[in-house]
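Justification of resources, computational component.

The compute hours requested in this renewal are based largely on the per-chain cost of generating structure records like the one below. Each record pairs the submitted sequence with a full structure-token output. That output is archived, and it is also reused by downstream analysis tasks.
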Amino acid sequence: MRWRPPVPGQSAGQHAHQHAAPDARLEPSDPETGDTQTLAPGATAASAGLLEPAAPRPAHASAVQAAAGPESASVSASESAASAGTAPGWFGDPALLAAFWRYERALMTNNIPELDALFAAGTDTVRSEAGSALVGHDAIAAFRATRPPVPRRYLRRVHLRPIAPDAAVIVAESVRGDRGTGTQTQLWRRVDGVWAVVVAHVSTVPGVQFSGSQLTEAEERAIWATPQERRPLRPSLAHPDGDDRPGSLVGIRVAVKDLFALAGETIGAGNPRFREGREPEHVTAPAVQALLHEGAEITGLAQTDELAFSIAGTNVHYGTPPNPAAPGHISGGSTSGPASAVALGLADLALGTDTAGSIRVPGSYTGLFGLRTTHDAVSREGLVPLAPSFDTVGVLANDLATLAAGARAILTTGATVTPAAPTHMAPTAVAPTHMAPTGVAPSGHSHAPVDSNPPAPITRIIVARALVALADADTQLTFQAGLRALALNSGAEVIESRGETTIDPHRLEEWFDAFRVVQQFEAWASDGAFVSANPGALDPAIGERFRVASSLTEQQAQDARATLAQATERLEALIAPGSVLALPSTAGPAPTLDATPAEIDRVRAATLRLTCLASLSGLPALTLPYGRCGTLPVGLCIIGSRGADLALIDLATPRR
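The structure output for this chain reads:
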């Protein structure tokens, strides 16, 4: 059975189940009337249509359908094929999840009758919190009647463990606006087909705000390429145009990866020798200028892994930026310094790049939201390249609102991309777009044409078993819990890919090998001259990657590009407009600072098999801080159709 949460506003009458016929069952309320539905014996919620509410955020649906035109038939066929799947077996009983969401919704809206109805009647029901317990339904109801509304919260992980055919435990972890967290543990029991809570425990923890005031000199140097006395490099302007237009990023502090041109500054790309060979930039990169255009503060340039050719976050020259979300562990890279700055509260937004995961990996390791934009949707002018076929600009933030504001700003600088017009890679070598010797990039802030066919609202989350299996066992479990939370928060249905559209593990390995060939081939074209002229200037591990890259031939690159074109076609068929592919952002949480090079390489290889999918296809991807292994964060990633960058953020924004 496909699973979809109930429509917001569904309500069950107080103790309505007590009045049903003995052999009848109650299911989620009618989406239109709000009345509780009594089903005939043997009927199911699916057959009655009660678990198939209207798609979330329906206001966009008519616009998408109207804009679809001749393409609508093919899109509908893709949607029909995707919808033929079922939810993974581990996802949970649809009726139980529907009841749980009704409880969560009622709690957020302070719907006392609904809350009372969802707790089992009688004297055996127990609710505990803060060292005391309430026993019996009447005592719990009396407590709720006098309690003020609870602060708004959002689900992050929903753990579901069946303990009997008609009993299950749900442990739900949530986060509040003040970054505080909470956990509710509930024992649900099904009687006469109706799920109700019989035991519940609630606990909350105040929010923790990280501060950089106690950073050591070494930590400061590991995060920032710009010295403290020169920060901020550009102040925030309330009216950046000099008129009455307020900027959307006023007061937002931005840490910019040390690969972007900023007039008057010298790009270092994470390597002292590289910086020594550069001149100060004369023009600011369009992506940076777009943020200034919206009033953002450019706090400073932040460190990167050398030449952006790593996802570890380590740098032998400047040190490893601290990871406050996982002390004693690496931050992930190559957007390492910007991610650390945001995680520590030294910046609100990070501007970085993602070639093979350099936004998604640090986002996963440091517990941030991170968007890799659609390839070519953001200008790469004024950016030191690594592998232009995959290089993409992205942003990281602690919250979705800031991430969305930053994404909207930089998305004005690139090409208009639509699902109907994919930009497949050329079958021949792509010459990297080197900057002029002085680092001059074309000037100005341009607004890209508005796409007349906005991406479809996302209503389906697809899971591929082969991709989830690439993660560590603990990461797979927290991925499941995070996916339940995402589905409940968004109202999207969850299905498992099957048949021709699913991803074959052997084919995935072919795609990864081809991606690695093209990435390394283009990396040598971008940086081979510098590497050859400066022997011994790089971390040995990165130097070895360039050594391998130097041996690749044009024919090998062409053959690999042909494989990637097929992979892109396959992925676009799987991720039709209105769908996302969900997978772990990384194979596991961040390795420790003292992990051996062999361990770093093992983790890197496993993670790259996950991150390469969005990279090789040029599709947008969003990492969400929904996972946790022990005390360590690990991200949940969603890959969308081409041009669906903002739709991904919309999906991740909890419905109210």
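The chain has 19 helices and 18 strands. Residues 234 and 344 are 20 Å apart (CA to CA).
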